[in-house]
Design a protein that fits this description.
Elements: H1 6-28, H2 35-42, H3 44-58, H4 62-76, H5 81-103
Helix pairs in contact: 4-5
């Protein structure tokens, strides 16, 4: 079994995430319940998401970056998930749509 095997990667990731969650539950009992600690712990999911997404966003082409910025902006304005996804996809597909309109 090598690391290039998708199932190996899946189960190693599953084990790592499970270990992290269980250690968080075990160690969380000894953390103080101050507002500062609560605020710091509330930001952890967003930090983890940013750590995963940032390298992908840096590798995007300008059109992909525009679509991502538009979708995130709409989500932050609380427009809704479906509208954000739809407008982001429209920006990504705009070259194809424009070409079809011109030919059509």
């Amino acid at each position: 079994m090598t690391m290039s095997d998708p199932w190996s990667v899946f189960f190693l990731t599953l084990a790592g995430v499970t270990l992290c969650r269980l250690s968080g539950y075990a160690l969380g009992r000894w953390l103080p319940r101050s507002p500062e600690v609560t605020k710091a712990l509330d930001t952890l999911p967003a930090c983890a998401l940013a750590a995963v997404l940032a390298p992908q966003l840096a590798a995007l082409e300008p059109l992909g970056m525009a679509a991502t910025v538009l979708a995130i902006g709409l989500l932050l304005m609380r427009v809704g998930l479906l509208a954000s996804f739809t407008f982001g996809c429209l920006v990504l597909l705009s070259p194809v749509i424009l070409q079809a309109v011109r030919e059509g």
